[in-house]
């Protein structure tokens, strides 16, 4: 949506059939639209770690931003601080492992791009929300084992498309992965750095529970 108010109006419209538990405005204002013990309709057709239809097993946080369609821009510090505080509160009430703090683009890569490559996941991880491995600053180019890359992505939790679904579907998934874990280059290409980050993240999530 083009504004926070427009987003809230839509999320509160019964005919829209879309909702979320929380909305975080750019100035840091937090709106609680649905109680945490009730289902909200924000993820839609989705998958993570062997589970689908995630609306019934997650808490949805919408973060106001015009998005890629209306002028995507960085998330202000006040908004990021509010997201942190909100998430820390949620995590204090629910036993959610770091690997299950996910983006909409993670669980529905063929339909969603949010919160996108400008969202500061590394900083959130330093604040105790989610995780962020110590990725290297430089990677020497090498060949990529696509089979291993697919296995790593599946182990992390992603809905990895089958080979019969084609290269376009896999490229869409890679863009979602890069948007979250390699934001400097969202290309959809299975290059050496993407493969290395997937392998490092796979090991991190195995250790984090």
From TrEMBL:
A UniProt-annotated Pfam family: Amidase_2
Annotated EC: 3.5.1.28
MF (Gene Ontology): N-acetylmuramoyl-L-alanine amidase activity
One GO CC annotation: outer membrane
N-acetylmuramoyl-L-alanine amidase domain boundaries: 1-116
Domain of life: Bacteria
Catalytic activity: Hydrolyzes the link between N-acetylmuramoyl residues and L-amino acid residues in certain cell-wall glycopeptides
Family: Belongs to the N-acetylmuramoyl-L-alanine amidase 2 family.
Protein name as it appears in the record: N-acetylmuramoyl-L-alanine amidase
